[in-house]
């Protein structure tokens, strides 16, 4: 079966190509995409050649991870269902994760996101509410990562949580912590992104680290200390800077990518009995919970979208992302409905 896909052919090079998908198996679902949401941090790391799988960094001697179809989150309409799929029907709107594609780097054979039609195992497909705004769910995996960050640490109502990073995961982590009753401070370097976090009339706050010292702000605003630090960008130095402000039994949540330079000193955490959670990937119960929060509007997704690109303009989207030629946050690829000549 032929399909259209975004392909990273070599480091820094993005093309839209026709590729071949394996024939669907009895437990597969074939999905025609309407939208796929770019995971700008993770996919940029792949495009630079820094990773070979998920959170596994590339090291000398590893197979060269190109070409690859990037991505892992998309929404669309069911075109076909396998013989063993009895709970989905053609025409239903769904969210999907991993796809299967032939002739592309084997390391990513189960991870293609930006490809339509997508051949997806039933276990990685979620039915969406009828009549929903599909694009709101197109970043569901990444929203689930933010939900994981925000739901993992113990925090009491009124507790203080500091989120390092104003990207998508940072926003959804901050939203989740706010839903749990925490007072949230988001640290970031992009005023346009920080402005998208609802500070709820002063209950929460943002700190532009380009103009303000996080330590000075925390000392003034939270003189009694903080309870949670969430790192969403992979900065050991920022974590270590904030650890002295954690109260006893405080908590660190790490969701950043540290590559091969991932050293956090544990001994300084012992005096205050600081807990550490390292979060990654996706899990079905978390995905279910995140979907419900998006469906009820408790997790906001659409307000974080800054750019839509037709899929044929994906190389332009990536030029913007890699060069930072203009401010961006959520970047979505829009797929044509007409699949004639592809199926």
TrEMBL record:
SUPFAM superfamilies the UniProt entry points to: GroES-like, NAD(P)-binding Rossmann-fold domains
Cofactors (names): Zn(2+)
Gene Ontology MF annotations: metal ion binding; oxidoreductase activity
Domain Alcohol dehydrogenase-like N-terminal: 60-114
InterPro entries: ADH-like_C, ADH-like_N, GroES-like_sf, NAD(P)-bd_dom_sf
Boundaries of every Alcohol dehydrogenase-like C-terminal domain copy: 169-293
Gene3D superfamilies: Medium-chain alcohol dehydrogenases, catalytic domain
Family membership: Belongs to the zinc-containing alcohol dehydrogenase family.
Record protein name field: Zinc-binding alcohol dehydrogenase
